């Protein structure tokens, strides 16, 4: 089975290729940037390049994208080119191979697609975010990712292409994109907090992609939130908005001593909770990392990050060019 990974120089692309190579799988990586995990330096925006890379490919793991931080450095047209045209080129190349030739097309999307649906009005409970929540993208990044998801569904419906869309929450190692959070919290403190409701370990993201390969033909099409399992239930949502530390203290009491030893603080309020139940049920995904396991690892002197995350490291976001 030959697997194409797009965005092979990026965080997820490298993690996917490292894992696949370690398992002895045949994998080809493409990116606009050269790297040890990139076999083809080129852009999926170029139709001929996309077609050439699709030769004899059985599975596509489409992780290439312009990200949210690129909103500040790239024109809106660049998002259309990479996130939409690039995805369309790959889908067309996959469909042209014929029904049944490409066994799985896995599209890496984002929980940013939900946009304004993630933040309830003041005084309202935190939002319970499942796949049934309607996206309300608030920037060109979210708009193009939602549109690319729709393209994927169109190709499943009309060309019988097995497609799985994975809406991943935060897994990047870079500093928070909000200045207020960067100023108020140590980097690892903020990331540990996020495992409660809006972060996922890259090792688990890779696991979800590998399961999507296995389940794509059976499912046909599916759209899944990929985020760490939260300890919260809908009954906690009102209290999370008012006093998040009290809720976390009740559910994961061990966190207080670990945080106190490091001088860390819990966020006073949480505005949303990503729910991964459908991915666990339909993909058979069993994420290993959540807030409780992170706290336990820190208590034992371990690192916040998984071994795979440490291998991949922090790459930043390129300021020019296409897919990352």
Structure write-up:
The protein is α/β, with parallel strands linked by helices. 42% of the residues lie in helices and 13% in strands. It has a domain at 2-178 and 200-229 and 273-288: Rossmann fold (3-Layer(aba) Sandwich), CATH 3.40.50.720. The radius of gyration is 19 Å and the shape is globular. The two termini are 25 Å apart. Residues 320-324 have low confidence and may be disordered.
Task: Compile the SSE list and pairings.
Elements: E1 2-6, H1 11-22, E2 26-31, E3 40-41, H2 47-53, E4 59-62, H3 76-96, E5 104-110, E6 127-129, H4 140-159, E7 163-168, H5 179-184, H6 187-194, H7 202-219, E8 221-226, H8 237-251, H9 255-262, E9 272-274, H10 277-283, H11 291-299, H12 307-312
A few lines on this structure:
The chain has 324 residues and is α/β, with parallel strands linked by helices.
Q: Kindly provide the radius of gyration, computed on alpha-carbon positions and rounded to a whole number of angstroms.
A: 19 Å
Q: How far from one another are the termini?
A: 25 Å
Instruction: State the order of secondary-structure elements, H for helix, E for strand.
Output: EHEEHEHEEHEHHHEHHEHHH
In the CATH hierarchy, the architecture of the domain at 2-178 and 200-229 and 273-288 is 3-Layer(aba) Sandwich
Helicity range: 40-55%
Any descriptors?
324 residues; alpha/beta; seven-stranded parallel sheet; two-stranded parallel sheet; 12 helices
């Amino acid at each position: 089975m030959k697997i194409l990974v797009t965005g092979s120089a990026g965080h997820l692309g490298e993690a996917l290729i490292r894992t696949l190579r370690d398992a002895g799988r045949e994998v080809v990586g493409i990116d606009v940037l050269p790297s040890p995990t990139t076999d083809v330096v080129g852009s999926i925006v170029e139709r001929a390049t996309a077609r050439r890379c699709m030769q004899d490919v059985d599975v596509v793991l489409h992780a290439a994208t312009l990200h949210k931080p690129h909103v500040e450095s790239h024109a809106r047209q660049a998002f259309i080119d990479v996130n939409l045209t690039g995805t369309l080129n790959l889908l067309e190349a996959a469909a042209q191979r014929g029904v049944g030739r490409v066994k799985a097309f896995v599209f890496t999307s984002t929980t940013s697609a939900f946009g304004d649906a993630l933040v309830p009005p003041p005084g309202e409970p935190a939002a319970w975010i499942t796949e049934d929540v309607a996206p309300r993208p608030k920037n060109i990044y979210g708009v193009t990712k939602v549109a690319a998801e729709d393209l994927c569904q169109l190709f499943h419906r009309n060309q019988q292409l097995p497609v799985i869309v994975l809406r991943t929450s935060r897994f990047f190692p870079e500093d928070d994109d909000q200045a207020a959070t960067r100023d108020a919290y140590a980097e690892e403190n903020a990331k540990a907090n996020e495992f409660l409701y809006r972060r996922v370990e890259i090792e688990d993201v890779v696991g979800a992609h590998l399961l999507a390969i296995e389940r794509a033909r059976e499912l046909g099409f599916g759209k899944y939130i990929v985020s760490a399992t939260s300890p919260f239930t809908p009954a906690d949502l009102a209290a999370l908005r008012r006093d998040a530390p009290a809720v976390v203290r009740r559910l994961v009491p061990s966190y207080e001593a670990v945080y106190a030893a490091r001088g860390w603080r819990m966020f006073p309020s949480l505005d949303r909770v990503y729910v991964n139940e459908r991915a666990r049920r339909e993909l058979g995904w069993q994420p290993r990392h959540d807030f409780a396991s992170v706290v336990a690892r820190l208590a034992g002197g371990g690192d916040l990050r998984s071994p795979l995350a440490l291998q991949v490291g922090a790459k930043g976001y390129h300021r020019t060019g296409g897919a990352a």
